[in-house]
TrEMBL record:
Belongs to the glycosyl hydrolase 39 family. This is Beta-xylosidase. It comes from the Bacteria. It comes from Arcicella rigui. InterPro entries: GH, GH39_cat, Glyco_hydro_39, Glycosyl_Hydrolase_39. Pfam families: Glyco_hydro_39 (PF01229). Residues 95-524 form the Glycosyl hydrolases family 39 N-terminal catalytic domain. Keywords: Glycosidase, Hydrolase, Signal.
Length: 561
């Protein structure tokens, strides 16, 4: 009997040991196995409402974005040519850059456009000069022109007179020419040569009320005008969304066919100037059994198909590629009150999704050997709106949300990406095929190394926003060229770098006091998880053990002499 009890005890110990080993997440990185540059594709941001740029909280957030990045941040905004008085509103913006006098003669006014670009340049940022949308005086269908959309309204109501082709392509071309010439005169040729000029936004859906051919015609006239004004300027497009959709893929390929071998509408020659290629990639969250379920696979399929199409053109496949909008879903201005599937945006799910998805963008870039230089996060701030309303933004009323701290982490990564392996990691192909839907989470890392530094971004991500036990993680970093390192760990979770949880503990005030705002601002900054320590390295290897909560992101920075 005693022997049977002893055997049962030993068996239970063995079973527990095996179970524990199976449950532990093992992640290994070798700093000597470099797989590519740590290109700062994350340092690109955009938003619908250009007039927020120079408002109080807009300026504050732009300053923070500039400060967190070691390279100039590129910023893309809509409506730079829309007619209006510059009043900011959701899904709306205007500059009044072009009007006409009583005789139909052009009147150019660059005051508001310059105010927007000045705000960027004062912070060392670079504008992605989006050429659009159609001024009222040039629109072939101007009425109605100004919309007054609000969350909960029909999204298609925004596509008014600004979305139509011009009634005169030559006047349109002259507008573009004058804008580029003005920019060179104001900011200097050397500066403007660093900008990316692009035509329109999502012309395969409601943003363009013309045909594919009419967009191509507009592109030809636009590109010709840009190059006449500044031959060294960079012009590109077409900013289609959803390349994994058949119609979108057809639009993108038709455009690329034209710029390589079609007859130019403006010059009559073969082909059109193109210096970079742009398209969009979006996910698709929904509510399932009362909780938010993300769909990273949908976004990655857009990326994958777009890269595949670009790579299929020998004369174009080395051009820079910019994902003009790369997000978990589509409507930034649709809050969680009207769109409950967007409830992920305030907390750490947005953070972990961002960390995991950017790592997979690098993987897809490597797969197709394309020149990805930027992936625009279409997320900014919404001035004078309710606190934590669930917009897809980086800050609310001047208080940083958890997702912004992922970009602060990215800002500390440089040099080369290195090979990573892990026993709980989803491969990029798995996510492309079926998203992150298994019982286990995607627990993985993106690792970079530079002179005397290494950086590890770790996430515990799952598409389903459900509670789960913390994951025990064993992280091993090999080929460290030093006998000791300084280790600093930062964390985004329920207790760290998380203004939203602090706000909820305050009672979710919509009119917080000055003292509460100061507390929230501090809580919104990237926080150390534990004090930095100095640790010994054995044979070039360092092993760290810690627990990582579901939807948390950990960032470990190593430095040495």
């Amino acid at each position: 009997m005693k022997r049977k009890l002893l055997f049962a005890y030993l068996l239970s110990c063995f079973t527990f040991s095996v179970f524990s080993q199976q449950e532990k997440t093992i992640i290994q990185a070798d700093l000597s196995q470099k797989i590519g540059k740590m290109t700062p594709i994350w340092a690109w941001f955009g938003y619908d409402e250009p007039n927020y740029t120079y408002m109080k909280d807009g300026k504050k957030l732009l300053s923070e974005l500039s400060a967190l990045s070691p390279v100039p941040v590129n910023v893309r905004v809509h409506s730079l040519l829309v007619t209006g008085d510059g009043t900011a509103a959701l899904k709306w913006g205007s500059t009044n850059a072009y009007t006409e006098d009583a005789n139909g003669n052009p009147v150019y006014d660059w005051t508001i456009v310059d105010k927007i670009f000045d705000t960027f340049l004062e912070r060392g940022m670079k504008p992605i000069a989006q050429i659009g949308f159609m001024p009222e005086a040039l629109s072939s269908h101007p009425n109605p022109y100004r919309h007054h959309w609000k969350p909960g309204d029909n999204y298609n109501d925004i596509y008014t007179g600004w979305a139509y082709p011009p009634k005169d392509y030559h006047k349109w071309a002259e507008l573009v020419y004058q804008w580029v010439k003005h920019s060179v005169a104001k900011y200097g040729q050397k500066e403007v040569e660093t900008w990316y000029w692009e035509l329109w936004n999502e012309p395969n859906i409601g943003y363009w009320k013309g045909t594919t051919e009419e967009y191509i015609k507009l592109y030809d006239y636009t590109a010709d005008a840009v190059k006449r004004a500044l031959p060294s300027a960079k012009i590109g497009g077409p900013e289609v969304t959803g390349p994994s959709w058949d119609k979108s893929a057809t639009f993108l390929k038709t455009f690329l066919d034209h710029v390589t071998q079609g007859k130019n509408f403006a010059t009559g020659k073969i082909g059109s100037p193109i210096d970079f290629i742009t398209y969009h990639a979006k996910g698709a969250p929904k509510i399932v059994n009362g909780h938010v379920q993300m769909n990273m696979g949908t976004q990655l399929r857009d990326l994958d198909k777009g890269f595949e199409i670009v790579a299929s053109y020998p004369s174009l496949n080395k051009l820079p590629v910019i994902i003009g909008e790369s997000d978990p879903e589509g409507c930034a201005a649709c809050g969680m009150a009207t769109n409950p599937e967007n409830a992920y945006r305030n907390g750490t799910m947005y953070s972990s999704y961002t960390a995991a998805s950017f790592a997979k963008k690098y993987d897809l870039m490597d797969k197709y050997n394309v020149n990805l230089i930027g992936a625009v996060s279409w997320s900014f701030e919404f001035e004078n709106q309710p606190w934590f309303y669930g917009f897809r933004d980086l800050a609310t009323n001047g208080v940083d949300k958890p997702v912004l701290n992922v970009f602060r982490m990215f800002g500390m990564m440089s040099g080369s990406r290195v090979k990573v392996s892990g026993n709980q990691a989803y491969t990029t192909k798995m996510v492309v095929d079926s998203s992150v839907r298994k019982a286990s989470a995607d627990i993985n890392a993106l690792v970079s190394t530079d002179k005397k530094t290494a950086a590890v971004m770790l996430w515990n991500y799952h598409d389903d926003d459900l509670k789960a036990n913390d994951a025990p993680v064993e992280l091993t970093i090999k080929a460290i060229p030093s006998k000791k390192v300084k280790v600093s760990e930062y964390r985004i979770d329920a207790e760290h770098s998380n203004s939203y949880e602090v706000w909820k503990k305050m009672g979710s005030p919509q009119q917080p006091t000055a003292e509460q705002i100061a507390t929230l601002e501090k809580a919104g900054q990237l926080a150390l998880f534990t004090p930095s320590t100095e640790q010994k390295v054995s044979n070039g290897t360092l092993t760290l053990n810690f627990n990582l909560p579901r939807q948390a992101v950990s960032f470990i920075k190593l430095t040495w002499e």
